[in-house]
């Protein structure tokens, strides 16, 4: 086991070990990679080939499925080292001073990679730079060998001039390297920069992405995580599209304060469905796909729209097991311990005989993969499900995910933009109950021994799985701080235009 | 896999939807928009699969979409490309098995088969010589016949994917196929296998070609020699898929048995799944061991589901399993369990690291969890009958169906393909689903596969299929296998319903 697996041992652990077979969980299904060596993903490619786009997106995906991943962008290090960037002269090979600085930056970045993968609980480090010279790649190879990391190269090659040009315009013009917004000069400068790099690649474990995903060359995939990375990269695209997420209309159970179940829409819920239809017509969405779960309330909502829709069982709401159809008061009364446990760690907490948010994420992965493949999609789902999907798009970690605000009768429109996601919120003016339960007030005394629920009917506790903190890719600061702030704890009253979830991942 | 007939919902079931009074179930395509808005179609729940569907005039609408893997209306034609002995048929059969298992009706069409039917007796490689006019004519005829059958399968027989397994080594032949596909509205996806490793080719020939009907009267040496000459006949005219010339085609080129892949223009979901599958399979020899947990407390009481611990006999099985594994002397064995107590307890006895997969958990019996069959019959006689009518598609109320299980288990299958030696300790329904994948069982057969307790199934890939050995570890256990009773009518008596229930405490 790596040094980061700490011994969650209280004095009771050996006792518990004897009675509970689940204590000895060595690895969990998601985390079989965790006992394998960490992996360094090395991006290769000329500027404006989409490396940073792929790095950030891949990192977001891997973190979402539970693989701690972080991007190390050399440009960021370089900018720190060289405050005033003069011009493309910096990148010329005959500029010795500059070469020294760039090498130094690479070394510093690699040291950070090492710290992340060996001490900070990271599993994958994405090294985002051009890495086009043999010398640089030798440096990397030596580094990974020394530290017993696996290495996987992701190369982006583009020979479609239109794509390159569009790429430059959208991203680089807003980069800190170009304080002057003079477009033409910027373009010119940038293209000159491109010519300074050489084109030298050779065979290792890699995927070569050609012309933004039109073609792929894949070589020597070593393991499970590399295979998932390849699959993911092969499914993403850069065509503009929008994803609309909303919940079903208000349901009868919602009105009664009950969780789960399979109830019908309330009259207000039906009104929302009607309003949703208007919304779709208004927005003139071409070729819109509509997805629902297999629970009645989402299907009823979709029926209103008068368009074909697809039912996905995996979009069903989180299974609350023995707590299904209870109100929070009833749960508090009948299972006070469970209730408390859930507040301690809402992401990992699994209802007895039910699921956890973590299980939900695993369940929803094919939905995310298909959303990446598709064009315009409207997903009519449920509160917990919507939180998980939203967390993927907005790069929210385990701490924040279960508390994201997803009110009824509100549509979120997500549009990928440069390196992030633009969020627009549309409240359709049909009143509904509030089903959001805020993070509990004050500091919850966190047990050093994490208590997890297994799929068990007689509640057991086990000291198992290390909870790895979600780490954010560099440059992508979370809008909400990791610890609950007073504002986050305020009882939710406002339906503000600038909602808390309207946090744009900061554009690079 | 079509929906059951709609007549089921009239079988005296207690209504889940409040009686749709004068519901003017208007079709959404109605011009009267406002009316449609305030009178959305009523929903009814299909009693077998528990799917909510809109209904009109008392009958469910047919066009309701349940998420299937293949959402396009466009059938797909997969075309293999490659010299003989490059694994095309191996890939075709495996891919077909996988697609059928995940619910995509698929069939393979092997041109060699057509040729064998036409030319009853194979003489020698001379048949394949490029200057053999007679041979060429026959081969072209066979390809056409096969394509005809493809058309029938995809347009009339409900097929969704057809795998056209032949060498297809010339651009000309592939052009013919592309024309054929365009005429019929099929999408085409090429799968090319390129390999120059003589050891691999040799092994290939030994494993599958020697047993071919073509070589029944030859000894090994003769057969190999003839086959090598056969390959030579294709080599000169071989036009591999080219990055430039074929840039508009959708294809995957598999090089050196999966060391490298070139993937071009993946068009849709099903092609993306096919690529992912092909990139995860390998041909390294290995064995997969499947077994259930040791006998559990609920097993002996005749109760289904739940999360109970092992009985004494169950624990004994676990011990014997440990010995068995050691005796087998398997290198680098991975052990997987579910997240239920009984499989974990079993694995614990092995004293090796193991991985817990939640998706390996037993089928969720919903409201019937922890009940005995007798209780299910007493409390839910209709459900019990529906299950016997279509055990694969039947979903327990608030639970799952075998069909759901298969979807849930797909990542396990994918990972089993990637891995080498694995022991999976799971549950009855789960084991049936996994076994059905390896042994190519249909949806009808799957739920009745015999998977007794305290028995290990050892699967070893061999030629185009899977060899299976059933090893009983000689520890007594209850029988949990319930055969399909003769009477599956919803009006049947309790006695008829419970006829096949295995004995329990």
UniProtKB/TrEMBL annotation, chain A:
Domain of life: Eukaryota
InterPro entries: 6Pfruct_kin, 6Phosfructo_kin, His_Pase_superF_clade-1, His_PPase_superfam, P-loop_NTPase, PG/BPGM_mutase_AS
Keyword annotations from UniProtKB, A to Z: Acetylation, ATP-binding, Hydrolase, Kinase, Multifunctional enzyme, Nucleotide-binding, Phosphoprotein, Transferase
GO BP field: fructose 2,6-bisphosphate metabolic process; fructose metabolic process
Domain 6-phosphofructo-2-kinase stretches: 27-239
Any one cellular-component term (Gene Ontology): cytosol
CDD domains linked: HP_PGM_like (cd07067)
Binding locations of substrate: 247-254, 297
Gene3D superfamilies in UniProt: P-loop containing nucleotide triphosphate hydrolases (3.40.50.300), Phosphoglycerate mutase-like (3.40.50.1240)
Enzyme Commission number: 2.7.1.105, 3.1.3.46
Ranges of Polar residues composition bias in the record: 1-14
Region of interest (Disordered), ranges: 1-23
MF-aspect GO terms: 6-phosphofructo-2-kinase activity; ATP binding; fructose-2,6-bisphosphate 2-phosphatase activity
Keyword Cytoplasm appears in the UniProt entry: no
Physiological role: Synthesis and degradation of fructose 2,6-bisphosphate.
UniProt subunit comment: Homodimer. Forms a heterodimer with PFKFB3.
Family under the similarity heading: In the C-terminal section; belongs to the phosphoglycerate mutase family.
Record's protein name: 6-phosphofructo-2-kinase/fructose-2,6-bisphosphatase 2
TrEMBL record, chain B:
Name of a matching Pfam family: 6PF2K
SUPFAM superfamilies: P-loop containing nucleoside triphosphate hydrolases, Phosphoglycerate mutase-like
Keyword Zinc-finger applies: no
Keyword Zinc-finger carried by entry: no
Catalytic center residues: 293, 362
Gene Ontology annotations for the cellular component aspect, listed alphabetically: cytosol
Region annotated Disordered, chain positions: 1-43
Keywords, comma-separated and alphabetical: ATP-binding, Hydrolase, Kinase, Multifunctional enzyme, Nucleotide-binding, Phosphoprotein, Transferase
InterPro entries in the cross-refs: 6Pfruct_kin (IPR003094), 6Phosfructo_kin (IPR013079), His_Pase_superF_clade-1 (IPR013078), His_PPase_superfam (IPR029033), P-loop_NTPase (IPR027417), PG/BPGM_mutase_AS (IPR001345)
Domain (6-phosphofructo-2-kinase): residue spans on this chain: 71-285
Residues that hold substrate according to the record: 292-299, 342
Low complexity composition bias: residue spans: 18-28
GO annotation, biological process: fructose 2,6-bisphosphate metabolic process; fructose metabolic process
GO molecular-function terms, A-Z: 6-phosphofructo-2-kinase activity; ATP binding; fructose-2,6-bisphosphate 2-phosphatase activity
Biased composition regions of type Basic and acidic residues, renumbered to the chain: 1-10
Assigned protein family: In the C-terminal section; belongs to the phosphoglycerate mutase family.
Protein name (record): 6-phosphofructo-2-kinase domain-containing protein
Source species of the chain: Astatotilapia calliptera
């Amino acid at each position: 086991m790596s040094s980061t697996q700490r011994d969650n041992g209280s004095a009771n652990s050996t006792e518990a070990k004897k009675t509970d077979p689940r204590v000895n969980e060595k690895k969990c299904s998601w985390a079989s990679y965790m006992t394998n060596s960490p992996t360094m993903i090395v991006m290769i490619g000329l500027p404006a080939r989409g490396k940073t786009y792929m790095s950030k997106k891949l990192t977001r995906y891997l973190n979402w499925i539970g693989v701690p991943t972080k991007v190390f962008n050399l440009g960021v290090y370089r900018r720190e080292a060289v405050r005033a960037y003069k011009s493309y002269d910096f990148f010329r090979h005959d500029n010795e001073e500059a070469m020294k600085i760039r090498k130094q930056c690479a070394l510093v970045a690699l040291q950070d990679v090492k710290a992340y993968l060996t001490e900070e609980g990271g599993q994958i480090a994405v090294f985002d730079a051009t890495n086009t010279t043999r010398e640089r790649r030798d440096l990397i190879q030596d580094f990974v060998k020394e530290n017993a990391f696996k290495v996987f190269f992701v190369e982006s090659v583009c020979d479609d001039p239109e794509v390159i040009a569009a790429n430059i315009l959208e991203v680089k013009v807003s980069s800190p390297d170009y304080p002057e917004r003079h477009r033409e000069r910027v373009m010119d400068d940038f293209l000159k920069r491109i010519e300074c790099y050489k084109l030298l690649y050779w065979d290792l474990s890699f995927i070569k992405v050609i012309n933004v995903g039109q073609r792929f060359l894949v070589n020597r995939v070593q393991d499970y995580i590399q295979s998932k990375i390849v699959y993911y990269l092969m499914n993403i695209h850069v065509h503009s599209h929008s994803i609309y997420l909303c919940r079903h209309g208000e349901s009868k159970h919602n009105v009664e304060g009950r969780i789960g179940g399979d109830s019908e829409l309330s009259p207000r819920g039906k009104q929302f469905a009607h309003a949703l239809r208007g919304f779709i017509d208004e927005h003139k969405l071409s070729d819109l796909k509509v997805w629902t779960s297999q629970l009645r309330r989402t299907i009823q909502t979709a029926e209103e729209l008068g368009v074909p829709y697809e039912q996905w069982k995996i979009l069903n709401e989180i299974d609350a097991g023995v707590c299904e159809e209870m109100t929070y008061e009833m749960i508090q009364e009948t299972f006070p311990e469970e209730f408390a446990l859930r507040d301690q760690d809402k992401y990992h907490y699994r209802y007895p005989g039910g699921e956890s948010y973590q299980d939900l994420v695993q369940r929803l992965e094919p939905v995310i993969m298909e959303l990446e493949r598709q064009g315009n999609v409207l997903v009519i789902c449920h509160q917990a499900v919507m939180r998980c999907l939203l967390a993927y798009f907005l790069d929210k970690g385990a701490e924040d995910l279960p508390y994201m605000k997803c009110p009824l009768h509100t549509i979120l429109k997500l549009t990928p933009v440069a390196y992030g996601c633009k969020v627009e919120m549309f409240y359709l003016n049909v009143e509904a109950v509030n089903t959001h339960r805020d993070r509990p007030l004050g500091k919850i005394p966190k047990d050093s021994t994490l208590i997890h629920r297994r799929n068990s009917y007689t509640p057991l506790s086990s000291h198992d799985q290390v909870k790895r903190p979600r780490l954010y890719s560099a440059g992508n600061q979370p809008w909400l701080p990791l610890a609950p702030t007073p504002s986050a704890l305020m009882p939710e009253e406002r339906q503000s235009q600038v909602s808390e979830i309207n946090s744009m991942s900061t554009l690079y | 896999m079509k929906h059951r007939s709609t007549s089921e919902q009239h079988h005296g079931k207690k209504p889940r939807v409040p009686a749709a009074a004068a519901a003017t179930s208007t079709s959404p395509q109605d011009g009267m928009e406002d009316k449609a808005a305030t009178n959305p179609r009523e929903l009814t729940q299909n009693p077998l699969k528990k799917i909510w569907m809109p209904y009109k005039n008392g009958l469910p609408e047919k066009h309701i979409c349940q998420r299937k893997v293949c959402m396009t209306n466009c059938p797909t034609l997969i075309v293999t490309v490659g010299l003989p002995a490059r694994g095309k048929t191996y890939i075709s059969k495996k891919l077909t098995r996988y697609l059928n298992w995940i619910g995509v009706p698929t069939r393979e069409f092997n041109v060699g088969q057509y040729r064998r039917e036409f030319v009853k007796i194979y003489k020698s490689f001379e048949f394949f010589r490029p200057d053999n006019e007679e041979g060429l004519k026959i081969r072209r005829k066979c390809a056409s016949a096969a394509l005809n059958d493809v058309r029938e399968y995809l347009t009339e027989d409900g097929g969704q994917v057809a795998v056209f397994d032949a060498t297809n080594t010339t651009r000309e032949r592939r052009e013919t196929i592309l024309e054929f596909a365009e005429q019929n509205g099929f999408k085409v996806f090429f799968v090319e296998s390129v390999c120059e490793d003589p050891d691999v080719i040799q092994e290939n020939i030994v494993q599958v070609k020697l047993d071919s009907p073509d070589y029944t009267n030859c000894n090994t040496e003769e057969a190999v020699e003839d086959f090598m000459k056969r390959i030579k006949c294709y080599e000169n005219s071989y036009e591999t898929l080219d990055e430039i010339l074929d840039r508009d085609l959708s294809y995957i080129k598999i090089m050196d048995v999966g060391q490298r892949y070139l993937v071009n223009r993946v068009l849709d979901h099903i092609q993306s799944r096919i690529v992912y599958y092909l990139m995860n399979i390998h041909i390294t020899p290995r064995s997969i061991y499947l077994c259930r947990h040791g006998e559990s407390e609920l097993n002996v009481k005749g109760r289904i589901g739940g999360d109970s611990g092992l009985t004494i006999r169950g624990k004994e099985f676990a011990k014997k399993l440990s010995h068995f594994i050691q005796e087998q002397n398997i290198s680098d064995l991975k052990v997987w369990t579910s997240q239920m107590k009984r499989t974990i307890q079993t694995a614990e006895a092995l004293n090796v690291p193991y991985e817990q997969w939640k998706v390996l958990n037993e089928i969720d019996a919903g409201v019937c969890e922890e009940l005995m069959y007798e209780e299910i019959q007493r409390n839910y006689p209709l459900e019990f009958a529906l299950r016997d009518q279509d055990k694969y598609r039947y979903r327990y109320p608030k639970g799952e169906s075998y069909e759901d299980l298969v979807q849930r288990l797909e990542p396990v299958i994918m990972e089993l393909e990637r891995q080498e030696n694995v022991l999976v300790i799971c549950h009855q329904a789960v084991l049936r689903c996994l076994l059905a994948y390896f042994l190519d069982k249909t949806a009808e057969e799957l739920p009745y596969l015999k998977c007794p307790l305290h028995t290990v199934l050892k699967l070893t890939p061999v030629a185009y299929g899977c060899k299976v050995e059933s090893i009983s570890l000689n520890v007594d256990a209850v029988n949990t296998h319930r055969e399909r009773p003769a009477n599956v009518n919803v009006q049947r008596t309790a006695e008829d319903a419970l006829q096949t229930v295995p004995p329990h405490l």
